Amino acid sequence: VEASIPEPQRAAWTKHQIKPFTGQDGFENEVVRHVETTLARSMFNCDESAAYAATSLAFRDRLILEWNKTQQRQTFADSKRVYYLSLEFLMGRALDNAMLNIGQKDVAKSGLSELGFRIEDIIDQEHDAALGNGGLGRLAACFLDSLASLNYPAWGYGLRYRYGIFKQEIIDGYQVEVPDYWLDFNPWEFPRHDVTVDIQFYGNVTKSQDDSGKTRAHWEGGDHVTAIAYDVPIPGYDTPSTNNLRLWSSKAASGEFDFQKFNSGEYESSVADQQRAETISAVLYPNDNLERGKELRLKQQYFWVAASLHDIVRRFKKSKRPWSEFPDQVAIQLNDTHPTLAIVELQRIFIDIEGLAWDEAWNIVTQTFGYTNHTVLPEALEKWSVPLIQNLLPRHLQIIYDINLFFLQSVEKEHPGDRELLGRVSIIEESQPKMVRMAYLAIVGSHKVNGVAELHSDLIKTTIFKDFVEIYGPDKFTNVTNGITPRRWLHQANPRLSELIASKTGSYNFLKDLTELNKIELYVNDADFRKEWQEIKYANKVRLAKHIKNSTGVTVNPAALFDVQVKRIHEYKRQQLNIFGTIHRYLTLKAMSPEERKKAQPRVTIFGGKAAPGYWMAKQIIHLVNNVGAVVNKDEEIGDLLKVVFLEDYNVSKAEIITPASDISEHISTAGTEASGTSNMKFVLNGGLIVGTCDGANIEITREIGEDNIFLFGNLAEDVEDLRHAHTYGSHSIDPDLNKVFKAIEDGVFGQPHDFLALISAVRDHGDYYLVSDDFHSYIETHTVIDEAYKNQEQWLTKAITAVSRMGFFSSDRCINEYAEEIWNIEPLKADKPEGVKDGE
Ligand code: F55
What we know:
Layout: H1 7-15, H2 23-38, H3 48-77, E1 81-85, E2 89-92, H4 95-102, H5 105-114, H6 119-123, E3 129-131, H7 135-149, E4 154-159, E5 167-171, E6 174-178, E7 190-201, E8 204-209, E9 215-220, E10 223-235, E11 242-252, H8 256-263, H9 267-279, H10 295-318, H11 326-329, E12 330-335, H12 341-353, H13 358-368, E13 369-372, E14 383-385, H14 386-392, H15 394-414, H16 419-425, E15 428-429, E16 435-437, H17 438-444, E17 448-451, H18 454-462, H19 466-472, E18 477-479, H20 486-492, H21 495-505, H22 527-552, E19 561-566, H23 575-591, H24 594-599, E20 603-608, H25 616-632, E21 642-647, H26 652-658, E22 664-667, H27 679-685, E23 689-692, H28 698-705, E24 711-712, H29 717-729, H30 736-746, H31 757-764, H32 772-791, H33 793-805, H34 812-824
Parallel strand pairs: 1-4, 1-12, 4-11, 12-13, 13-17, 17-18, 19-20, 19-22, 20-21, 22-23, 23-24
Antiparallel strand pairs: 2-3, 5-6, 7-10, 8-9, 10-11, 14-16, 15-16
Helix pairs in contact: 2-3, 2-5, 4-20, 7-34, 8-9, 10-12, 12-13, 12-15, 14-15, 23-25, 23-30, 23-32
Ligand F55 binds near residues 133, 287, 674 and 675.
């Protein structure tokens, strides 16, 4: 490519090469230029939203220059790339992150100030990019940050939803969903109208024989939709490397057919076709940990997977290498089973389009893919009905059957006569209708399968994927414990703490090697350090208190213990345990004498999180929290001793305010149900302690920070099955303290009890699947221990500092390095330093 540009032209291009702005002056120059030309405004009508737009455009220009260089470098170096396929990227805001990663936030701050703006107000103008539900989507976003920061050649592939996760409003205590139209002004994406892929649906399959007598399948007819690429630059921290997130948008294929329709007066049906096509990328499905088998969702999956695969194959073909080298150039990671059709699509491209033999193709396919599992909950394991796939993707169904046939033949060979085993591991479930088990297809089509925390990885090996460990041996299954990016979750969310840590560790290098946090343990007894630490936590609580006041009207005392549970609302995450415990606290306070009350620890219990729109029980939990808040918060007898708030519309940018302000955060899932959790890591990294069950990454956090620095409670995963069995077949007695809570609810203390009866009967009458009663006593007791521990502020502070100093392991950088070594086999590709330039210059 490089050699094909003749010298004189090359010289002209080089002479006019665009240089990134430098210094405050250069930055201001760019802002004013964008205000006056790109936005066609002036200093007389530049409001905060225009200032945000111009600032973003100034930074976007810089990012795209580095993006170009990074992509050229990767192409010339011919290096292996990893492609992270995820239906969700929960990115949050981009401007603050871009400024910090490029190292120009100070410049922007003084520049904006000189132009008459406060940088915080400008940052606050940005609409979150909320293309995800929760942990799975946010993990993908943290991974992109780490991949770029560590200089790995990597692309993300996703869908450009017109509507991200809905905006949540709380009206009369109930959740109301409002559409999140976020694309009105999005300076962070580059439409690539020249990068398109034609995507086919429906139709039928015919067979033909080629000259050598081999049969070839042809997928013909059906509907066609066009995928258009939108690129989002992903800057690394303190490196010029800028990776790419490519999001696909759907639009009607502009074929002759439409044109004819249009001309023959069928204007309306031509517009309808267009709308049908655009529906594919219109909206993010708002369910977390639930799969509902809707055709549009399957269309989304295939549309995105097919566009991404064709893009990857097209890029590989430019290298003119033989197909056998495909896995040396390409690693593809499947974020859960949502992109599993990629396995089938690549096999189809190889055998139907490129003419490879089945075995040769399949060998390449399995070397290319890795699959990450994020859940053991049965209702979240994807299954697609055979008739649905047959209709939408007829050729893919044939290939799935062939994959299954060859797989079952190989199993039969190793385990002759074990028909039960064949039935259990078959990719096709023999139900009515038959179903395709996507996790099994993902396992069979990948060379590595990983869980996201140690307990979870052990559980998938011993429960849902046990037979596959038997078949493939244990080495195909591995663990990569999740991590979070310290750039966003410490440096950006908690700049003062980041600065304090830098002052003691000697630099900001801990943001690149988080294990350097251990250096602050030396200062755990340093009086000045401790004082400053405490002041920072207090300031963060004051900030959150203001947010609470503004958004809910409730006044909270920043000196109280802030107890936070923010995450998607789900019975397995047990917000109901928290609110029952909070009611118990209220009843206990009410029963106290004024003397006793004086000794009680003031507390603010903070909830936040969205319920899937169709998840009725989750919505009842939100309603109960709000009703309890309404009663407790106006009870003058209780005052500051207890406040209960539900924060509306929890999202990434709100998490950046909430996370640094917790004293305690709750990670209280029924043991064995939360695969990892990642907000647990964020809270501890910001100097908050955890109350949690022995579940997911809580266990590894405990191992790292020490059991004196975490409040664990409740039954263990290994006992859950027996307890559930006992509920169903033995006598099931409810914890007496919990019964008092139920009685108060039933007596109408928190409003009309009618709505809340289902929450009570789930525990009392329907087997208490999530073990709320079994863990209630231990939960209440642990909170009493927490109250006492918090009264000893000095000891509490020691715990918090010690915990932070030991959190190095939970960086997503560590996590990505493990994927790179164990699964992807890729190396970083650094930009060469210009000759004669030393580090630090
Ligand atoms: C979204 C859609 C479907 Cl169909 C299924 C699941 C989801 C989803 O959002 N899952 C999710 O967030 N899973 C979480 O992944 C995190 C990252 O690995 C884990 O920390 C967390 O335990 C797990 O629940």
